[in-house]
Design a protein that fits this description.
Layout: E1 11-13, E2 19-21, E3 25-26, H1 34-46, E4 50-52, H2 60-69, E5 78-83, H3 90-104, E6 111-114, H4 122-134, E7 141-144, H5 148-157, E8 164-168, H6 176-184, E9 188-192, H7 204-213, H8 217-227, E10 231-232, H9 239-245, H10 255-262
Parallel strand pairs: 3-4, 4-5, 5-6, 6-7, 7-8, 8-9, 9-10
Antiparallel strand pairs: 1-2
Helix pairs in contact: 1-2, 2-3, 3-4, 7-8
Organism: Flagellimonas flava
Pfam family, one: Aldo_ket_red
Family: Belongs to the aldo/keto reductase family.
C-alpha cells in the first residue's frame, strides 16, 4: 500500500486501486464561510490534493466554495466526508450523504467514512456506504475511530471491507497492534490530531529532533506519520502554516529516530475513546 514518500502530490494506494493523497488538509474547527474557503483554496494552491471534512464540522458549504473558487479541477481533488452519529442507520445515512453532497456542491465523494462506531447502528450504516459505493457515488468507503474489535464485528457482516480507518494517531498514541491489524487486512491507516492538539510543541524531545533536522516540530511529526505509512491531515486555517506543513519532502527521519518516536507511545488519548463515547454529543 505504501509508495515512495517524495512529494506533496504523492499517494498511498487503497485496496481497490484508488490513489489517496498521503497528506491532506483537515478543516475541523475551521469556521464555515470565508475562513474555511480560504484555507481550502490556499491548500490547493500550495499543491495539496486531499481535503477532509465532516458533516458535524458544519463547514461543508465553505469547503465546497473553496474547491469551486480554486483553479484545480474537481477530478484532481480527493474529498473526504463523514456520516455523523445521529445519522446512523441505512436510510438516514443515505439522506445524510445527499445533504453533504448538496452542501459541498459536488456530484460525488472520493471517500466517505463512518465517523464513530455507534453501538448497534454501524452495521446498517455500513450497508448504506456499500450501496453508495456500488452506485459509484463514492470512490472509496471506510471508517473512523474503529478499534480492532469493532472492525472485526463490522467485517463479519460486511460485503466490502473498510478501505480506510482514520484514528487519533501521534507518538503518544501509536496503537501498533491496530496498525498491524489494518495492514494485515489492507485497510489504510490515517491520522487525525497528529499534533496532539498542540501538546507536541511542549515536548523537549521534539525540539531536539527539530534542531537535528533543521525542521519545525510539526514537520517532524508529519514526516513521522508518512514514514509509518499513515496518511495525515493536519488542520490549519493559516496560509503560512498550511504551506509549512507541506514542506516535509526534503528530509527523512532515520530508523533510530522512528524507533525513538514509536517508543514514546503512552496509549494516551487527547480525543474521545471509541469504547467510551457520548454518542449523542455534538463535538
Amino acid at each position: 500500500m505504501k509508495n515512495h514518500i517524495s512529494n506533496l502530490s504523492g499517494t498511498f494506494t487503497l485496496i481497490n486501486g484508488v490513489e489517496m493523497p498521503y497528506l491532506g488538509l483537515g478543516v475541523y474547527l475551521s469556521k464555515n464561510g470565508q475562513e474555511v474557503a480560504n484555507a481550502v483554496r490556499w491548500a490547493l494552491e500550495t499543491g495539496y490534493r486531499h481535503i477532509d471534512t465532516a458533516a458535524i464540522y458544519r463547514n461543508e458549504s465553505g469547503v465546497g466554495q473553496g474547491i469551486k473558487t480554486s483553479s484545480v479541477p474537481r477530478e484532481d481533488i480527493f474529498v473526504v466526508n463523514k456520516v455523523w452519529n445521529s445519522d446512523h442507520g441505512y436510510d438516514r445515512t443515505l439522506r445524510a450523504f445527499d445533504r453533504s453532497l448538496e452542501q459541498l456542491q459536488l456530484d460525488y465523494l472520493d471517500l466517505y467514512l463512518v465517523h464513530w462506531p455507534v453501538p448497534g447502528e454501524y452495521r446498517d450504516t455500513w450497508r448504506a456506504l456499500e450501496e453508495l459505493y456500488k452506485q459509484k457515488k463514492v470512490r472509496a468507503i471506510g471508517v473512523s475511530n474503529f478499534l480492532k474489535h469493532q472492525l472485526e464485528d463490522l467485517m463479519e457482516s460486511a460485503e466490502i471491507n473498510p478501505m480506510v480507518n482514520q484514528m487519533e494517531f501521534h507518538p503518544y498514541l501509536v496503537q501498533q497492534d491496530l496498525i498491524d491489524f489494518c495492514q494485515q487486512h489492507q485497510i489504510q491507516y490515517e491520522a487525525w490530531s497528529p499534533l496532539m492538539q498542540g501538546k507536541v510543541f511542549e515536548l523537549p524531545e521534539f525540539q531536539q529532533l527539530a534542531d537535528k533536522y533543521h525542521k519545525s516540530i510539526a514537520q517532524i511529526v508529519l514526516r513521522y506519520d508518512l514514514q509509518k505509512g499513515v496518511i495525515t491531515i493536519p488542520k490549519s486555517a493559516k496560509r503560512e502554516r498550511i504551506i509549512s506543513n507541506a514542506d516535509i519532502f526534503d528530509f527523512e527521519l532515520s530508523a533510530s529516530d522512528m524507533d525513538f518516536l514509536d517508543a514514546m507511545d503512552r496509549n494516551h488519548r487527547y480525543g474521545p475513546d471509541p469504547d467510551n463515547f457520548e454518542w449523542s454529543v455534538v463535538l
